[in-house]
Specification:
Structural class: mainly beta
Largest sheet: 6 strands, antiparallel
Radius of gyration: 20 Å
Helix content: 10-25%
Distance between the termini: 70 Å
Number of helices: 1
Shape: globular
Oligomer: single chain
Length: 178
């Protein structure tokens, strides 16, 4: 009987230790080098929220360097960026149903693509460094034109009455929403 009790006690202690270590390993997301941020607002009667990790430039070349051109990017850091709307909207003239989507971007020197993908909750990149983007789950792809801007050390999204804007380094990319 003592052996069974000892085994149960040991198993319970082990389970508690593993759970505690796992919880501590998650840490406080706000203390990450690329902390979580949220941008939200109302566009055309719809409430839009963008949740993303906000990395810093830290002296690096971002566009065409850290973030390659013509390759899917998680549109932020850490987990995949999430775009949510409570009503159906038109993004760059195309219909997007109400819902929650992972937002990916394919930066280009003269034109960008933004991809709204139905798979959410995934880490933003795969082990090899590519975006954790499954094209089979794409709901909508739109294009946008990048513009030069003043320096933004941290990646920022803004939701305006005309849509949303991604701003980072010396670039901003507006996307129209109605």
């Amino acid at each position: 009987m003592n052996a069974k009790l000892a085994k149960r006690t040991l198993f319970t202690l082990f389970t508690v230790a593993v759970t505690t270590i796992s919880a501590l390993a998650q840490g406080d997301k706000a203390s990450r080098p690329s902390p979580p941020m949220t941008a939200s607002g109302t566009v055309g009667g719809a409430h839009v929220t963008i949740t993303y990790g906000s990395p810093s430039v830290k002296g690096r070349q971002i566009w065409g360097g850290l973030v390659p051109y013509d390759k899917a990017w998680r549109a932020g850091a850490n987990e995949a960026t999430v775009f949510e709307t409570d009503k159906a909207i038109k993004v760059a003239g195309k219909d997007l149903p109400a819902g929650k989507y992972s937002l990916f971007a394919v930066p280009g020197e003269k034109e960008w693509q933004f991809i709204f993908n139905s798979q959410t909750g995934q880490w933003g990149i795969k082990r090899g460094g590519d975006a954790n983007h499954d094209p089979a789950s794409d709901v909508l792809t739109v294009t946008a034109k990048p513009d030069k801007s003043s320096m933004n050390e941290k990646l920022v999204y803004e939701v305006t009455n005309k849509g949303f804007v991604l701003k980072w380094e010396n670039l901003e990319v507006p996307v129209a929403i109605k």
